[in-house]
């Protein structure tokens, strides 16, 4: 259970890096006399944690142990590639492994929805930025997306992407939660689906529920050449979101977690 302070958020993100499955925000202050108001949240979070595959938290896998046909596939060539990633339970550790494996010169912007409440995504972005070669930050409304930068949607906001010529613009706004999620992977994916000129690569990482599956359908409908990846069941803390995405029939590659960063680097090449 964490307080909505910078110190509390930093400690929470650090705890998740070391193996905490999930967390619950305190309803008020440090004493939290009204803790009874989140009784159902505590019960559901504990129930979800009980189903988590905690064996994957005890080790960091090496990509040398896995091989996939994607490594031999021809890289895409596009003036406007964009990576979209969705994650929930177990996501902070998964994101760390993916982002820290990318080179500083990674030739595309990366947009990320990690299910987290307000006050925690900034700490997550700051921590990942310290560990990664690429730049990682919490997304801001109206900023232009840059190659080699990962943008994490702020908790309590929806993140969407628009296009001005070849420039991609980030929009962070207060909107209704979608299926209880704010930010929502579906919202991000659907906005990218509406872009006229881009080549998306979508990634669904570990998480409870099905967020991202519906948005993936939109991506594939409007951009049939979208490359869709999902995290393998064996490497997920919770297999819900990847499984839902795979059930759509539009996932191109099911990859173990250590393979994903390498696959992203291998697949994206800008036109020369």
From TrEMBL:
Q: Which GO terms describe its cellular component?
A: cytoplasm
Enumerate the UniProt keywords alphabetically.
Answer: Chemotaxis, Cytoplasm, Hydrolase, Methyltransferase, Transferase
Give the annotated active site. Answer: 88, 115, 211
Q: Which residues form the CheB-type methylesterase domain?
A: 76-271
Q: Which PROSITE patterns match?
A: CHEB, RESPONSE_REGULATORY
Coiled coil as a keyword of this entry, yes or no, is no
Q: Which GO terms describe its biological process?
A: chemotaxis; methylation
- Tell me where in this chain the Response regulatory domain is found: 1-41
| MF terms in GO | methyltransferase activity; phosphorelay response regulator activity; protein-glutamate methylesterase activity
Record's InterPro entries?
Answer: CheB_C, Sig_transdc_resp-reg_Me-estase, Sig_transdc_resp-reg_receiver
The cross-references to SUPFAM superfamilies, in alphabetical order and at most eight, read:
Methylesterase CheB, C-terminal domain
Q: Which domain of life is it from?
A: Bacteria
**According to its UniProt record, which reaction does this protein catalyse?**
[protein]-L-glutamate 5-O-methyl ester + H2O = L-glutamyl-[protein] + methanol + H(+)
Q: What is its EC number?
A: 3.1.1.61
Protein name per Swiss-Prot or TrEMBL: protein-glutamate methylesterase
Organism encoding this protein: Gracilibacillus halophilus YIM-C55.5
């Amino acid at each position: 259970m964490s307080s909505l302070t910078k110190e509390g958020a930093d400690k929470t993100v650090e705890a998740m890096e070391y193996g905490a499955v999930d967390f619950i925000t305190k309803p008020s202050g440090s004493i939290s006399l009204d803790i009874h108001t989140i009784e159902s949240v505590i019960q559901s979070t504990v129930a979800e944690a009980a189903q988590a595959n905690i064996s994957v938290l005890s080790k960091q896998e090496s990509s040398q142990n896995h091989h996939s046909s994607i490594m031999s596939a021809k890289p895409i060539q596009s003036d406007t590639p964009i990576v979209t990633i969705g994650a929930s339970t177990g996501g902070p550790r998964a994101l760390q492994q993916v982002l820290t494996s990318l080179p500083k010169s990674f030739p595309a912007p990366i947009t990320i929805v990690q299910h987290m409440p307000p006050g925690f995504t900034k700490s997550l972005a700051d921590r990942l930025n310290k560990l990664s070669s690429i730049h990682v930050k919490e997304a801001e409304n109206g900023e232009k997306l840059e190659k080699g930068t990962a943008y994490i949607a702020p908790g309590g906001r929806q993140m969407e992407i628009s296009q001005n010529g070849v420039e991609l613009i980030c929009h962070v706004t207060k909107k209704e939660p979608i299926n209880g999620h704010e930010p929502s992977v579906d919202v991000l994916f659907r906005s990218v689906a509406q872009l006229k000129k881009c080549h998306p690569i979508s990634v669904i990482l570990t998480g409870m529920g099905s967020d991202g599956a519906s948005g993936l359908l939109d991506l594939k409908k409007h951009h049939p050449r979208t490359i869709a990846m999902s995290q393998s069941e064996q490497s997920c803390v919770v297999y819900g979101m990847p499984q839902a995405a795979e059930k759509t029939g539009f996932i191109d590659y099911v990859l173990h977690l250590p393979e994903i960063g390498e696959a992203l680097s291998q697949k994206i090449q800008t036109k020369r």
